[in-house]
Design goal:
- The complex is a heterodimer.
- By secondary structure, chain A is mainly alpha-helical.
- Chain A has one domain: MetI-like fold.
- Chain A is built from 13 helices and no strands.
- In chain A, helix 3 packs across helix 13.
- By secondary structure, chain B is α+β, with helices and mostly antiparallel strands.
- The chains are: A mainly alpha, B alpha+beta.
- At the A-B interface, helix 9 and helix 10 of A face strand 6 and helix 2 of B.
- The complex binds adenosine-5'-triphosphate and magnesium ion (MG).
Amino acid sequence: MVERRSLGDLLPHFILCLGVAIVAFPVYLCFVGSTHPQEVIANGHMPVTPGPLFFQTYYQTLFVGTSGTTRQPVAAMLMNSMIMATAIALGKIAISILSAYAVVYFKFPFRMSAFWLIFMTLMLPVEVRIYPTYKIAADLHLLDTYAGLTLPLIASATATLYFRQFFMTIPDELVEASMLDGAGPVRFFFDTLLPLSRTNIAALFVILFIYGWNQYLWPLLVTTRDDMQTVVIGIKKMIVTADALTEWNIVLATAMLAMLPPVLVVVLMQRWFVKGLVETEK
Amino acid sequence: MAAVVLDHITKTYAGGVEAVRGVSLDIPNGSFTVLLGPSGCGKSTLLRMIAGLETISGGTCRIGDRIVNDIEPADRDIAMVFQNYALYPHMSVYDNMAYGLRNRKTPPAEIDRRVREAAGLLAIDEYLTRKPRALSGGQRQRVAMGRAIVREPLVFLFDEPLSNLDAKLRVTMRLEIRRLHNRLKATSIFVTHDQVEAMTLADQVVVMNAGRIEQVGRPIDVYRFPATRFVATFVGAPAMNLAPGRIVADGVVEIGSGRLAFDAARLKPSMGASVDVGVRPEDLRLLQGDPGANAAVGLPFAPEFVEELGATRLIHGLSGTAPFVIAAPAATTAADMTAGRIAADPAAVHLFDITTGASLASTAA
Ligand SMILES: Nc1ncnc2c1ncn2[C@@H]1O[C@H](COP(=O)(O)OP(=O)(O)OP(=O)(O)O)[C@@H](O)[C@H]1O
Ligand SMILES: [Mg+2]
């Protein structure tokens, strides 16, 4: 091993380390900033070592919030974001897997047309259909509700293609075997297809959770009450134009906290689907 | 009573492909029937129609005392073993075998008894908690059979279940399947394109070609008395020699400049007719000694090359313009091979109609 450690080996490592440093440094600064008193940052002296106020700042951020602008503890915002992101991820997965199941395993008139129609929702994200969608949400009294926050974002089965491709790799004999074993369509779905899709669902959940977590425009439109705001919007509202009034330590702490759930999802799910990838089933 | 009766079954696929063209067949209760034929002849299609995995385009299929054309696969009282095993990858071996019974609401104690009994029979008891991916090909094959056995069906269906195994394991599993059948005595239908599998396993061989049945019979009868030219060349390795000939006398057929005697009591061609003459390589022998004495019978033969098989050697050569193969004993020496004439026992000579390919035997033996 020793003689193989040549310069050619070290160089890529060096570049990788540099990359990590470039990505991680702002995050570190953000953390450092969140542990200093507000005045330190407001004065423009960005310290590079952690300050003394870690517990105090994070306690205030989580359970009290800013004194002026958002008037909400960040824990509540995190809760809203969590509910929204989870509902969007699970909702999209549920719709996509069911529509893929229908398209792959059942013969019905206009099957492929249905598939392509579903697929075309890819070209219609919320931003494109925002006015009619807002009108519908308003007419259905969905403003300031979780349903209003999530349903319009769920209503596209963009992951259908993903599941369709996966289902088509499952051998037909497996369907036939379970038919002979007396399993109808519902049993086959829950007993065979769903367990086999576990790793795919995990991978998709990660992507969709982050997609949901980062939503900005739609939550901004559809929520007006303070207790319904998500953390992404909360951060934006905390930063007021008169720079001196912005409680930067709390903003930075909120940013740190807002980063945690997606990171946790990635880390937890990654272990899960790497395990799935190693033990290939099918 | 026959367990499975097929009556003029046809299958036309969506694209207009006629995969099965009018197959009628009785599969006796408790028998082991092998569907044998070249790739694409419709064996799998026929089996899948019996299983209910393909719709039947025409004719009726009867299993037990029911016509099953419109009965769901799960309700046909059959179990199938697939070529790629089709085990549920996420279930343990035990669950793979128990799944069908659970879906049928079999009492858990009964499920447990049957699974353990089948596992014992197949020597897979140690693997019951493993997932299929942790098993070898042969073990997976056993689990697939176990899944069929626990169902205690009226009919077992096998679609080339051994073709994913290596040659040695294939032989072992073949014997095991036969042993299992002798024990369980369940009606079995087994699809293969491997004639050795067919010969060794079957009580009844069904030779198929291009969607039709060519011959049904005991393996040895299909081998000895092929009903058509197709069966003659398909069954047996190396394949039967075929050459065009003409009937020149009662019991004598002329091939090129040579003549062969045939069993006139069995074969009834008309005088002067053109026929196809078939002789198996192992039924041909090299004539020794002075050819003059035997000039009336025998074919001229010019050896070209020899294939060494150990127990026998295959001598390839030409009789006139027709290629011939002779399976000669290993003791045959180079000197024997220049003899230049070959002959066969009249009983081993087969004649086929030159246009229809049907055997000219008066009655199928
Ligand atoms: N789903 C299908 N649609 C159209 N044609 C088909 C379909 N399945 C099979 N065929 C055709 O039907 C014919 C018989 O196929 P089948 O699978 O029964 O052959 P086989 O005898 O089992 O061959 P093999 O030994 O290769 O498995 C083939 O010509 C095949 O191309
Ligand atoms: Mg086949």
